[in-house]
Amino acid sequence: MAIMNINFTSRCLAMKTSVWVAYPTPTLGEMMQRKDKYDPEKRWPVVYMLHGAGGDGFEWIQRADMEQLCCQYGFIAVMPDAALSCYNDTPYGAKYYTYISEELPAMIEATFHASTDAKDRYIIGYSMGGFGAVKIGLMNPDRYCKIASLSGCMDMAGFINVFENGSIFTIHTSLSDWPDMKDGDNDMLALLDKAAARKAAGKYVPPMYHTIGKQDFIYAFSQEWRKKAQSLGLDFTYTEGDGVHDFSYWNGRIINEIMPFFFGK
User: Fold this and answer.
1) 17-39 pLDDT, tens per residue?
2) Residue ranges per domain, the chain?
3) If one looks up domain 2-260 in CATH, what number appears?
């Protein structure tokens, strides 16, 4: 696997930003057998991997087994930095939602041998990134094949009300100023209603996967959303188990559940 860090100026963010890219390459065993993955005609599936609050794209490299995942399943992993934006176009100028959903895929597909077909484009996130992955995936259902959330907070308004005072969020006041917390783009229950209406109209809605540890402090902020997703008859998979809000829980789910969910292997 090749790992690259790309630093470039983003039009949507109006500043330089960083994105990590993991690219599948032949293993030693494959090279010994003369199995070449460098096919100039091949276009690889792409998985956009969104980090959580307080993290960055490099956390996926540090804490998840990206070499095994990329080489075993054959995909390009794209791991952008998104600060504490919750993948929104923030009120103060940085358009992280537009960057992740539009500008970044265009850059990746122009730079790498990445498939431009929606059936080869996936999105996953942990914690804040789980919220972002579901939001971006449901708002752009024609652009993504499947969506996965690892302990995503699906009641951001409730979470902010409980944790904003005395937490890291007090230094990021833009969280309190988010638009559309009710019935809009940041209301995850409303997005489920829109997805159900889209399905009823015979249009494609990406299958979703959500998992969370039962001891996770986010647990309570995903249950109403989970129950509604199940009640609406969407293509929705939910799992839970003993675990807290970290990669000791998420890694097993990524390897054993989400990758097979994405790629059917």
Assistant:
1) 999 999 988 777 777 776 666 67
2) 2-260
3) 3.40.50.1820
